[in-house]
Design brief:
binds flavin mononucleotide, 20% helix, Pnp Oxidase, Chain A, 9 strands, alpha+beta, elongated
Length: 206
């Protein structure tokens, strides 16, 4: 075990490292946690997963923020079943994180307004798409109106896109950790203890 990371046999340092990796995902587009896999439950009960960009992390509230098209299938999923999970794998330290919880969608309000204002017109452009994501189309298409393809819309042009914009707030109550190491893997899980307002962690057999 010589040369292992300081968190190797330490639950507190392990969750601190998990937090660091997750927060890095919102701060840097080069971080592995910048594009987690977000899973929801489809209307037929089957899991549905997709990559999403992590926009913001509020560790105190255990909340991750994502942006999406308000017409997308995942929002239908969440309206029926708010259960969701988020998967992150960082290949450099070889750490997998599995977050379990639930997600809600906002299409108005302070958090929605702030997220819209923080986005660039280029990022907002995808919400100008004429059809809902996933609709069957006759021809290959970007979905964008022709006039905006290949350029950034101005403030007046982007305004209608706001109707198609939504934020997805994922709150997690469980965090599972798997660290792959030559000396022996380490697996742990923390559950949020609301009475103690703290994480309660255990080692698991990998
Ligand atoms: C690198 C990458 C980043 C993506 N970021 C987002 C995102 O931030 N929000 C989003 O809704 N979809 C994003 N997507 C597209 C989703 O993976 C997915 O195709 C889309 O949201 C439709 O999913 P749904 O039909 O399950 O709703 C991204 C895809 C890739 C490959």
């Amino acid at each position: 075990m010589t040369g292992e990371a300081a968190f190797y046999n330490d639950l507190h340092l392990s969750i601190a490292e998990a937090r660091r990796l997750i927060e890095a995902g919102a701060d840097s587009r080069h971080a592995a946690a910048h594009h987690p896999v977000v899973a929801t439950i489809g209307s037929d009960g089957s899991p549905s997963q997709r990559v999403m960009i992590l926009r913001h992390v509020d560790w105190q509230k255990r909340c991750l923020r994502f942006h999406t098209d308000a017409r997308s299938t995942k929002l239908e999923d969440l309206a029926k079943n708010s259960t969701a999970s988020v998967l992150i794998y960082d290949p450099e330290p070889k750490i997998q994180l599995r977050l379990s919880g639930s997600a809600i969608v906002h299409r108005e309000g302070a958090a929605f307004d702030a997220a819209w204002h923080q986005s660039t017109n280029f990022a907002r452009r995808c919400y100008l798409a004429e059809q809902a994501p996933g609709i069957v189309v006759a021809q290959p298409t970007s979905g964008l109106p022709e006039w905006v393809e290949g350029r950034q819309p101005d403030d007046a042009e982007i305004a209608p896109a706001r109707d198609n914009f939504a934020i997805l707030l994922f709150t997690f109550h469980s965090l599972e950790w798997l660290y792959l190491a030559n000396s022996g893997h380490r697996r742990a899980r923390w559950q949020w203890d609301s009475a103690a307002a703290d994480w309660c962690g255990n080692w698991l057999a990998p």
